[in-house]
Amino acid sequence: MRIHAIELHRIGMPLVRPFETSFGVQTSREVLLVHVRTDVGDGWGECVAGVDPFYSSEYVSAVEDVIRSYLAPALLAGPIGGAAAVAPLLRFVVGHRMAKAALEAAILDAQLRADGVSFGSHFGATRDRVDCGVSVGISPNISTLLDEVQTYVDQGYKRIKLKIKPGWDLEPVAAVRDLLGAGGLLQVDANTAYTLDDVAHLRELDAFHLLLIEQPFVEEDIGAHAVLARAIETPVCLDESIVSTSVAVDAIEQGATSIVNIKAGRVGGYLEAVRMHGACLTRGIPVWCGGMLETGIGRAANVALAALPGFTLPGDTSASDRYFAEDVTEPFLLDEGTLPVPTGPGTGVTVRTGLVRDWALREPLVLSAG
Ligand code: NPG
User: Which residue, 21, 68, 147, 277, has fewest beta-carbon neighbours within 10 Å?
Assistant: First the structure.
């Protein structure tokens, strides 16, 4: 395959409601879309990096820079052996996994469209629909939180995930457990907001029979998560810490994570995400598909990934209207708590290029060979 051009589109999309995590409030999604033009056709990918380096060290401007300065020149220099060749070719750049993942996704989209194969078939999907959960941000107060959760329950979401932080944990979790009843699937996500000093406090969450607690401590402290996992009954699930299959295997062997959140952007691409799924499946470790407020482009690929057999827990693969009034592709609509796995070639969705133009925050950056 020969890549003729890589276009970077930086767009801004208002969120239907602000999304607050332990690291800040987001009211819009500024997102970088990658459009590749190749000799076999075009493809689109989405970069999950945020506008600020708060969830990870990557952020949109840095992604643009590393693509322009290093990654695109390597891909444009000559023919490449398809999407599978992208990660090995870009390994000379340390880290920057979200940037690499977006490029690989766009190239995979072009390749699979040319081959007439969907992302789901290529990944080895075994389901045609996936169970959906929803991630609920930190609310101004309990009653607003309960109203929001009730809306999602009424819409049919199969699992609720609550963002927590010190000062916003036991009380909201107790209130939502009460609303959902004993059988409702409930989990929490701390986005690194706690330390080992909080173990006794976090043990109090055991009373609420959560599916899991996600990433309570900073990403480098995998050993600390193993200590917590031994001290509490709630399963510990790592997100930010798990940047590759080998790190996942190491964390599993240390007893730091008994469930893994898989996000393609965080691990350097969908192909690495598929490998991670395989490693977890072999070890009997359940996985679920995380979300990063994706547009329809990334959501289509996430839903395909979530259809693999080891994804046994509902993912953060919510319907488009949970995030955006209008999406850059056809919307994903919730049907009895599930989303359909796209069956068309590539991601199976069509990018509304007029909207990409309307929402552009600046002229696209066009990188081409020679
Ligand atoms: O539904 O896409 C979604 C959001 C899921 O909570 C969610 N994502 O830490 O996993 C996370 C969190 C996040 C969102 C992180 C945006 C960073 C940016």
Answer: 147
